[in-house]
Amino acid sequence: MAALRKYLLAGIVALTPILVTVALIDWLIDLSDQALSMLPEQYQPEALLGINIPGLGIILALFAIIIIGALLSHFIGYQLMRLIDRIMGRIPLVRTVYKATRQLLESIFSDSSQAFKQVVMVPFPNRDSMVIGFVTGEVTILVAGEDESRLSVFIPSTPIPTTGWLLFVKSSELQVLDMSVEEGMKLVLSGGMLPAGGEGDKDEKHKN
């Protein structure tokens, strides 16, 4: 019985990631097909191409994102983006969310980005609990009439790390973790279900 239980658990561990991935891809294909079905019938890919290609919406969406990215990288696209920024910046409430999300994504995905410098544990929301945070810089702020040096720490929410909390903490209150920013983000995105250093990460470290 013990052996059967062991084999069952091994099978579940091996197959679950595959099944989740397949289910996610299938969901994305269905979603993209539903989006395309909203087009007028004469403009649907099946009418234009004469054949039905499952998941074509995903390909078209990726293609559109690449085209938009290419346009925004040139002068005309840059001017258009500035216009959109100005429009969004004039809408109450929307401008706060728009600017915060844009700045965060630009800092994370920038090629030269060092937005997150260290992975730390910080007391939050009270002294009795600790959460994972990412040090983004050092600032001097006025506290009780005196200038104090604090570390700015971004606390991402799970499982959507583009939202969260910004804390200004004394360095003595932080516990620096021995993990990379990528490993820390993996831990946050998985809600703690994935370890910060999987076997693949460990193998990579051993090679280095």
SSE arrangement:
Layout: H1 2-36, H2 45-49, H3 56-72, H4 75-89, H5 94-109, E1 118-123, E2 130-143, E3 146-156, E4 164-169, E5 175-176, H6 181-189, H7 199-207
Helix pairs in contact: 1-3, 3-4
Radius of gyration: 23 Å
- The structure class reads alpha+beta
Mean pLDDT, to the nearest integer, reads 75
Output the CATH topology of the domain at 118-193. Thrombin, subunit H
Q: Given this structure, which CATH class of the domain at 118-193 is correct?
A: Mainly Beta
Cα distance spanning the termini:
42 Å
Low-confidence stretches: 198-208
Instruction: Write out the strand line-up for the largest beta sheet, numbering strands in chain order.
Output: 4-3-2-1-5
Q: Do you know the CATH architecture of the domain at 118-193?
A: Beta Barrel
Helical percent range?
40-55%
Bulk shape: flat
Strand count: 5
Features of the shown structure:
about 50% helix; 5 strands; single chain; about 210 residues; disordered C terminus; alpha+beta; Thrombin, subunit H
Folded structure, characterized:
The protein is α+β, with helices and mostly antiparallel strands. The protein has helices at 2-36, 45-49, 56-72, 75-89, 94-109, 181-189, 199-207; strands at 118-123, 130-143, 146-156, 164-169, 175-176. The protein has a five-stranded antiparallel β-sheet, with helices on one face. Among the domains are: 2-56; 118-193, Thrombin, subunit H, CATH 2.40.10. It is flat and about 70 Å long. The longest helix is centred in the first third of the chain and has 35 residues, at 2-36. The chain has seven helices and five strands; from the N terminus they run H-H-H-H-H-E-E-E-E-E-H-H. Helices cover 51% and strands 19% of the residues.
